[in-house]
Amino acid sequence: xxxxxxxxxxxxxxxxxxxxxxxxxxxxxxxxxxxxxxxxxxxxxxxxxxxxxxxxxxxxxxxxxxxxxxxxxxxxxxxxxxxxxxxxxxxxxxxxxxxxxxxxxxxxxxxxxxxxxxxxxxxxxxxxxxxxxxxxxxxxxxxxxxxxxxxxxxxxxxxxxxxxxxxxxxxxxxxxxxxxxxxxxxxxxxxxxxxxxxxxxxxxxxxxxxxxxxxxxxxxxxxxxxxxxxxxxxxxxxxxxxxxxxxxxxxxxxxxxxxxxxxx
Amino acid sequence: xxxxxxxxxxxxxxxxxxxxxxxxxxxxxxxxxxxxxxxxxxxxxxxxxxxxxxxxxxxxxxxxxxxxxxxxxxxxxxxxxxxxxxxxxxxxxxxxxxxxxxxxxxxxxxxxxxxxxxxxxxxxxxxxxxxxxxxxxxxxxxxxxxxxxxxxxxxxxxxxxxxxxxxxxxxxxxxxxxxxxxxxxxxxxxxxxxxxxxxxxxxxxxxxxxxxxxxxxxxxxxxxxxxxxxxxxxxxxxxxxxxxxxxxxxxxxxxxxxxxxxxxxxxxxxxxxxxxxxxxxxxxxxxxxxxxxxxxxxxxxxxxxxxxxxxxxxxxxxxxxxxxxxxxxxxxxxxxxxxxxxxxxxxxxxxxxxxxxxxxxxxxxxxxxxxxxxxxxxxxxxxxxxxxxxxxx
Lengths: 264, 393
What we know:
The complex is a heterodimer. By secondary structure, chain A is α+β, with helices and mostly antiparallel strands. Chain A folds into two domains: 4-128, Phosphohistidine domain (Glucose Oxidase, domain 1); 132-262, Nucleoside Triphosphate Pyrophosphohydrolase (Alpha-Beta Complex). Chain A is built from five helices and 18 strands. In chain A, the strands form three sheets. Chain A has an eight-stranded mixed beta sheet with strand order 1-10-9-3-6-7-8-2. In chain A, strand 4 (38-39) and strand 5 (47-48) form a beta hairpin. The two termini of chain A are 41 Å apart. By secondary structure, chain B is α/β, with parallel strands linked by helices. Chain B folds into three domains: 8-178, Aconitase, domain 3 (2-Layer Sandwich), CATH 3.30.499.10; 182-272, Alpha-Beta Plaits (2-Layer Sandwich), CATH 3.30.70; 277-391, Aconitase, domain 3. Chain B has helices spanning 8-14, 20-36, 54-67, 95-110, 139-149, 158-167, 195-209, 224-236, 266-275, 294-304, 320-325, 327-336, 363-368, 384-391; strands at 41-43, 47-49, 76-78, 135-136, 169-171, 183-189, 214-217, 244-245, 255-264, 284-292, 313-318, 339-342, 357-360, 378-381. Chain B has a five-stranded parallel beta sheet with strand order 12-11-10-13-14. In chain B, strands 8-7-6-9 form a four-stranded parallel beta sheet. In chain B, helix 3 crosses helix 4 (95-110), helix 5 (139-149) packs across helix 8 and helix 7 packs parallel to helix 8 (224-236). In chain B, 54% of the residues are buried. The model of chain B has no long low-confidence stretch (mean pLDDT 97). At the A-B interface, helix 1, strand 6, helix 2 and helix 3 of A face helix 2, helix 3 and helix 6 of B.
């Protein structure tokens, strides 16, 4: 089984490889990280970051916080790496002057407790050991102001029984757009659809698999759908009703973001 | 992506042709400029440096200052440290702390940094003008000078402000451009606010807004000192570099297209105060985070004049210069039995050497003081009138 690879933004050079500590909170390195290398507040209260890669939402508070990392480094109890969802420059400065590799633009929910990961602070690459990455294309198909939802078969290997878009694995050398068009034909018998927008990749973690999903908005002139075995039903719903259906993680937010970008 | 362009002279500094300290400084600015998408470095009129208290910078910080040791090239003020240099206090410190602290102070002095030792340098030592490009650290001062004065600085850290002070430049991005100064969220506040309620608004909004610049509406009567309290609390709990107040701050017209809206009322403010306050009588009443202005010292002196002191200790914090210019107020406060300290404050001094509980009207101190392994205080967060009730007979 391969390791997954996520592309973030490199902020402080160097490589690190260790267990990740995920703190779903903003942290003021002054005060909210102790001189002994523990997080002192929030969901990660009393968690040691020594020798770990610390992943948190982003920095806040005192502009002296940069020195906390330097102090931990000088006492040999620093984290080996830093990951932020969205970094600000006080933490980045701390990472640079303390020579701790750092990456941002990485969502925290791709990690599970106890994951061993590596980061490359130059390229921005993050990889999770023993977690396989699968590339998926998901088509949000609209027609006459309505969205097509497919009910996934109860035997589906992922997210059985949920309502979803038209999606499938991106096969070798395929572009996500091509995957989308192929799946439209295979799963729905739809030959013609025009692409409105391709969104940025979304990551969804499910046990030992990390799905890298490329979402896209497509429009079709037909209402006719011919299902294959992969789905057990379909429905055209008014766009705003999407929240009423049981869908896979991040499905609704991703759709809302596409809709607002496309000014639909 | 278009990269940051250095001039030939800057490249020479980058390559180390003018020494290690300058090279380190410009490399840090370059990295941060790249991160922010800057096109070039621009000249600054002043710098303000945080990272002075030994409690905050530690041994690692001292080593860093030695490596980056170089004369500053623009007027540069300095944050408070762990004690009052001339008068001692607010708490007894051990010999090692004193020695290390003075080592840090002397390093900065030799770099040519002012002996300002204050988080409100804009009151006297280092007063920027509207539109000035500057490079400031100290979260509460950054947000104050961007918002109330209209000077332009990103949220620099202690090390990056020092790097800018040495080089005399900062990367041109973020708050240095109009686009980076626009409010992206409108906050309607229906409740009339005083100093402490503004501080509570800051504590409430900081974690919610994270990085977004707010435009506060409904507070046309906001005063400078109240917005100082708001500045400090908001920036302690977020990484927000600026705010606008409708009809009060000078750039309040800078608003992004289709901003979000948040409504805040009496309930949110009162809950925030409640949540952050113990009811027990504190051992210490501490006022002056950020440092007091002359106007505030006069007001407090007026409240204490002729009264008899009881109960907890009363400590006020300001800068040397403000203290010197308010000698009459200081005399009244000290006659009452309070103490006025300069160079230091309740957050950066090791208060827990003596005290376990502190009452304050500062939202910023209310964020830092309770933190385990840092402030270690039980905090009573309340308005100045309620605080003074503990100490006036």
